[in-house]
Specification:
single chain, alpha+beta, 2 domains, five-stranded antiparallel beta sheet, four-stranded antiparallel beta sheet, 8 helices, 34% helix
Length: 200
């Protein structure tokens, strides 16, 4: 993933939003000086400064490099229309409107590194996911549910390799995710999550 900064239009969009609307969503609070936002993602806390056009990790790793994709994802979360309560209905990316067409080729969900790392060892997969706050759920050979943002659950389902089938990983979303993000940001969310699992 690249480490460039988000395009100025992303920052302009953020600055044009009502501060009250941004602070109304879960996992977002004002910074100590009141000019920026603090946002939680998984187990980490980030400062988003729309005036200085910068995003930094406050904890636990202030020196972590933040990819352009991840920075854009954080901004898009702040400007998204609130998705409201969870639908309590799990769907795959192909069940989203337009998903069958969009999530293929270069836009196939980025799960290959997880298959390579954990396809033979679901227990190691679980341990790693727990380190990031995920909890086990009842799917496949091992399934772990993340909450990258408080009201946006994302579940990775691992099927380990056996005599008949190769290992595979699929992703499930609460149906409400379509009210938070467009398809490109759902793709980016999985890209960022997978990289965080793999690389820390």
């Amino acid at each position: 993933m690249s480490c460039a900064a988000p395009h100025p239009l992303h920052w302009e969009d953020l600055r044009n939003r009502r501060r009250e609307d941004i602070l109304d969503r879960d996992g977002v609070k004002p910074s100590s000086d009141g000019s920026s936002y603090e946002v939680t993602f998984l187990d980490s806390l980030y400062l988003i400064d729309p005036i200085g056009e910068r995003i930094v990790e406050l904890a636990p790793l202030p020196t972590r490099e933040l990819s352009e994709e991840f920075q854009i994802l954080l901004i898009r979360y702040l400007v998204a229309s609130s998705g409201g309560p969870e639908a309590q209905v799990e769907i795959s990316e192909k069940d989203l409107p337009g998903g069958v067409t969009f999530f293929q080729g270069p836009h196939a969900l980025h799960v290959g590194p997880l298959v390579k790392l954990y396809g033979h060892d679901p227990d190691v997969f679980e341990r790693r996911c727990r380190e990031l706050g995920a909890v086990p759920v009842d799917h496949g050979d091992k399934a772990m549910r993340f909450r990258p943002f408080p009201q946006i659950p994302v579940t990775y389902v691992l099927w380990k390799e056996d005599d008949e089938f190769p290992a595979s990983v699929s992703v499930l979303f609460d149906k409400s995710i379509a009210r938070w993000f467009e398809l490109d940001m759902i793709f980016t969310l999985v890209l960022v999550l997978t990289e965080r699992i793999v690389r820390g």
